[in-house]
Amino acid sequence: MTVTIGRRELLAALGGAAAGPLAGRAQQGERRRLIGVLMGSGAGTDPVEQARLAAFLRGLQQLGWTDGRNVRIDTRWQHHRHQRNRS
To answer: E strands within 1-87?
Structure first.
């Protein structure tokens, strides 16, 4: 049994196979960046630290970076543990 394929069908099949991976990549959304923020003591309750974080987020937004849209911002607060001085 012999299968014959015309030149047009062959070119259409090859063109579709080559364009398939490109079409898949073209439909992906914009790449989301990740920013890690380590803040000082206060665990989010210090008004000065909260003001600094708010100013940082406003600055990013003015530059076109929006949390959840094109950037993910992970904020961590440093927890101080008071240690006793040993004498």
So the answer is: 33-39, 71-77
Q: Distance between CA atoms of 16 and 2, rounded to whole angstroms?
A: 24
Beta strand 71-77 with 33-39 is: parallel
Residue 87 belongs to some domain of the structure: no
11, part of any domain: no
Q: Predicted confidence band at 81 (pLDDT cuts at 50, 70, 90)?
A: low
Q: Is residue 64 a part of any domain in this protein?
A: yes
pTM value is 0.55
Spatial neighbors of 48 by CB under 8 A, at least 6 apart, are: 42
For the stretch 30-53, pLDDT in tens is: 788 999 998 877 666 788 888 988
